[in-house]
Amino acid sequence: MGANNTTTTNTNNNNYPSSSSSSSTLNSDDSKKLHIFLDCDPGNDDCILLVILLQLFKNYPNRLNIIGISASYGNSSVQNTLKNLTSMINVLSMGKYDINIFSGAEEPMVSNEQSFFPTNIHGANGMSDLKELDKPNLAFCKGKITSKELLRLFNEVKSNELTQNDKIIFISTGPFTLISRFIIEKPNLKKLIDKFIVMGGVFEDERGNCNSKMTGEFNIFNDPDAANTLFMDPIMKQKSIIFPLNITHKAIFDQKQMKIFSESSRKDKEISELKKSFLKLIQKFSLLYTSSKDNEKHQFDKGPPMHDVLTAMPIIEYLIGNGNDFENKTNWEFKEIDFMVEVEGNEISKTHIFTKNSILKTLETENEKDNTKNINSTKNLIDYKQESCVVLYNMNFNLFWKHFQLTFDQLDQENYESKRIMQLSIYLIASLSVLVLGGILEKVL
Ligand SMILES: [Ca+2]
User: Fold this and answer.
1) Catalytic status, residue 307
2) Which portions of the sequence form the region Disordered (predicted)?
3) Range of the domain at 329
């Protein structure tokens, strides 16, 4: 693993912010490394999240480790999401990093007859049926993940002298079946997870995207029992950071973002083939969203919401530091909520809040309160000591889009560079062949 929990250097180039930049405010926890396990169901928006997490992994090798990634049923069958996951690892040439890839949950904890695959949003294969990004390599897959294996992987981090104070972050951007089953089988997992970051749910008056009354959200709808197992658990609720539709419906990939995305980071050059493929993915996703039956209800005519991608923001904030000025602050607005979800009936997956007088908070307002109690203040969501589920309602979206675009610009440049190196190698081999062949011919003649 090569862990070093005191070093904050990184190999970033292409203007990705450094964790030691002067615009950042660091606290004592900033030297800790994050160890991430991602359970996802790619999924167009899961794919974009993967690009961002893998790019962070490349940029901050001393601060970020990916313990593993599992593919769950959800946007498509587990067979399809696993293919899509290995395709993404393959396309992004991450095979050399030896990331543990697993197949995950295949069906909900309790049979849910209403469950379906949203082919209208994610295409038949779960990834807009896009040929350019469809290059599965199942050799990357280490088989089915078990609770025993996950416990072993987490214990490996927490029992190592060098990494025992680091943080384990479990991210879930599909149905929550896998981790819910695992904490029942191995309750010790709860202690080992520092934060559980998810995309899911819809609260209060925001319109949902599932059930006959549109009062639920898809990830919870797929397995509402799993959601209750996790968010009603007294330990897990103090670790859960939830990105519901209330915030993801504000992350719209609109024409302005599309224009920035379509431009090359190398002013005089075309965008790389890889970036073109992702542009196609987003355009198709956009088309599927805006032409879907949900559009009338959601009015996504400006572009698709980037649901899962937002779960990367607490990680980015932790690695880069929360800026001092308003522009570079994440400015989270959240509530701390106790809730449960309906597990059957025509409002299956609807959330019911128990907390009385839950009010919108920011890290700043919480710090002011804490200061009067002499409790250490925190500059980021991952270090925030919560009492109930943190449910996000708003944030600085300009900062989100800045990181989003920066990631793809970097990918664009790297891809262009690797293609140029490949072309140069082909040219050199061809030149050498001509020389060698020339020499042989000279001898023969
Ligand atoms: Ca997803």
Assistant:
1) yes
2) 1-28
3) 34-444
